[in-house]
Amino acid sequence: MRIFDPHIHMTSRTTDDYERMAAAGVRALVEPAFWLGQPRTSVGSFTDYFDALVGWEPFRASQFGIRHHATIALNPKEANDPRCADVLEVLPRYLEKDRVVAVGEIGYDSMTAEEETAFAAQLQLAIAHELPALVHTPHRDKARGTERSIKVVAESGIEPGRVAIDHLNEVTVRTVKESGCWAGFSIYPDTKMSPPRMVEILKEFGTDRVLVNSAADWGRSDPLLTRETADLMLAQGFTEDDVDLVFWRNPVEFYGQSGKLELEDDQAERGPLFEGNSILRGGS
Ligand SMILES: [Zn+2]
C-alpha cells in the first residue's frame, strides 16, 4: 500500500513518527503552513517557519524515503493580527519555490472581515502563481463557514477543481461536492472525523475528488490514521484500487496541478523506501 498524506504538520512531529509513517506505507506528504499555537509577533518568525517547511523538513522526511512538499500562506487565525499583515508581501517569493504545491491553509477561523480579506487576496495569489489552494474550514460554526468559503472561492474566479476545502464532515460534504471543489477530511483520534465515519462517507459520496489526511499536529492526533482508514476501507469491501485512488492518485492529481510534485517514477513499484537508505537516528 502506498499513502500520500495530503495534510500533515510534520514540524510538530518526531523522527519516530516519520519512521512509523514510512513503515505504514506513507511515501509522500504535503505540510501546509499554519499557526503554531504560540502567536507570532513579526514577519521574521513566519519566514523562518516557511524556510523550515521548504528546507529542513524535506531533508528530515528524505531520511525515511518520504517526499515532502509544502503549502505556504498566512493562516486564517493570524490574519486577524495586524503585526502579521505584512506576511502577504513575502508570500510571492515562497510560492515560486520548488515543492511548494499550493497556497494554504487559507480560509476562515472566526469569520472576521480581516480573515476574509486575507482569504480573498491569497486566492488571487494562487491564480497569479498558477497554484491550487487549500482551504481550512472553521471548527466552530462549520456549516456556515464552509458555505461562506465556497462563496469566496466562487467570487475569486479560481477554477473550483483547483481548490480543496478541508476538515469536512457529514454536514458539510454535500455542499462542497456540489461546488466542484475537492473534499478534504482530517481523521482525528476522538473528535471531528474518525475512520469508521470516513468509510461511511466514502460509501455514500464515492471516492472521486476526495482527499483523506491525518492533519497530525501539536494537538492530540495520530499520523497513522490514514493507514487505519485505508485498512478499514479494505475490511469493508473497498478494493485495493479504491484505496490507491483515495490515498495516492487523488492527492497526486490535486497537487499535481502545481506542476511541482517531486515523486519518483518507480516509487509505486518499490518496497518501503527507507529500507535501503541510511536512516537519520541522531538529532545532530
Ligand atoms: Zn492543518
TrEMBL record:
InterPro entries: Metal_Hydrolase, TatD-like, UCP005295
Molecular function per GO: hydrolase activity
Keywords assigned: Hydrolase, Metal-binding
Lineage: Bacteria, Bacillati, Actinomycetota, Actinomycetes, Micromonosporales
Name of this protein: TatD family hydrolase
Domain of life: Bacteria
Organism name: Asanoa siamensis
Family note: Belongs to the metallo-dependent hydrolases superfamily.
